[in-house]
Structure formats: C-alpha cells, structure tokens
Write a structure and sequence with these properties.
The protein is of the alpha/beta class.
Length: about 120
Amino acid sequence: MMTSVFVVEDDYFIRTGLQMLLEMDGHHVQGAANGREALDLLKGSPRLPCVILLDLMMPVMDGIEFRRLQLQDPNISHVPVIIITGRDVTVAGDDLRPLKVFRKPFQPEMVAAFVGEYCDLQG
C-alpha cells in the first residue's frame, strides 16, 4: 500500500522538490505552504499521513504553532513530525517532540531515505 506523506513548507522550490522526490520513491504526497493550510488539510483528510515534514518559519501560521495545535487534537496528534528548518530548535524542540530534525541546508535524498525507512516500518 502506498504511504502518505505531508510536506509543510512555505518555500515553493523546497516543497515541490521534496514532493517530487518522495513521489518518485512511491509515496502519495500532499503539500501546504503554511501551518493553517496544513491543519485544514490534515483535519479534512480521509487518510492521515505516515509522517509530516514541517518547516518552522512560515507566514500565516508557523510550524511551532501548527505542531502545538496538532498535539492538542486527539484525531491527529499521533502523526509524527520531522522538522526541517534553518532555525535552532533547541528552544522549542522538546515541546514539539519531533521524530527527527534536519537543518537547512539539508540533503533531500537523506530526508527521503529517512521517510522511506520510517514509513516502511509503520506499514
């Protein structure tokens, strides 16, 4: 069965690049440009993703606020998050309970490999 991955990133080129790479690896991928859009899509989705790739610095709603709201919602709180950011996450990192953190600039292939291994184990 094809696993689903969610990419929440305001930078169009990073978001679409990750989406294309993950789709080539066989995942169904949804993208959102900010936390508000991501929450709306997540709450309305019939199938939750295996994992969410989350940028922290975004307009409208940043990744920190998204994750805090996600963790408060029992229907979506169990979906793990991989943080992808240029920001130092030591301040909020523990509160956000990330599965993993990739610092920008990152190697997309490493992110895709981690997502593939993680989602395969969950499948």
